[in-house]
Amino acid sequence: MLVSDYMTKDVVGVEIPSNRDDILKILKHTGISGVPVTEKGRVVGVVTRKDLLRKSEETQVALLMSQKPIVISPDASLVEAAAIMTGHSFRRLPVVDDDGILVGLISVADLVAAIAQLRIKDEIRDFYLSTTFALWEETPLPLVGRIMEISDVEAVPIMDERGRISGIISERDLIRNSHIEDSVEVSDFSNGTDDDEWTWESIRDMHVMSYGVSKVQLPEKPVRGAMVSNVITVPKNAGISECALMMKRARLDQLPVVNGDKRLIAMLFDRELIRVLCMEQDQ
């Protein structure tokens, strides 16, 4: 199972120079989580949804991107790709040829698709599951984004007033609901003399600068207006490849895991599920 057999060859990316708005449009239109940044065909960085949300005031791709990204050869195995992604918490790896030219992209979703084909019947175990928390469906969207940033999670289940899952919010949904907000801010660089405010010395030392600020903003609305309501859940005894197939078909990054009473007990993230490739290799 080689990277070349599962990678995406028609790669969506940006070339330097580009700006943040170009990337935001791409992520909104495609729903992907990040794009490689190239210069004369060679990969020089990667920009992700997290970069846009965390550096909301930055507009230049060169300052948004993670520089010197780890890349992989098309002749590498999927096991090697899975090991790199799980070890560094990456969601994608640019695939380059011997000359360093971008020829493809291998993502967590591509690895999940491979797992679905393996027909692994073993049940998902605690080893693959992540503890989780939930938010109330009336929580303001900007607060949800901040909580997800602090907690470093890609998705959070949403509950109604009865404690039942009513939806799920992910980084993809945050980007889909975001907008660019332009404003003007003022900085006062006055020297602050003790002279009378109307003297020439005081006037000369006053330096006020106005400048435009452009930010990626989330609207002030409850998270229920942005979440995905049709939530697909799985029981703890679901099979590994079965879960991978669900993720592939519905283009999901995660699945809430429920008990017999349909109560949330954990989350199954795709980034954890791909570890099965390394374990299969060991066996």
TrEMBL record:
Q: Which domain of life is it from?
A: Archaea
Give the record's keywords alphabetically: Amino-acid biosynthesis, CBS domain, Methionine biosynthesis
| Database matches in InterPro entries | CBS_dom (IPR000644), CBS_dom_sf (IPR046342), Diverse_CBS-Domain (IPR051257)
On whether Secreted is a keyword of this UniProt record, the answer is: no
Among the Pfam families in the record, one is CBS
Record carries keyword Amino-acid biosynthesis: yes
Gene3D superfamilies in UniProt: CBS-domain
Name under which the protein is recorded: CBS domain-containing protein
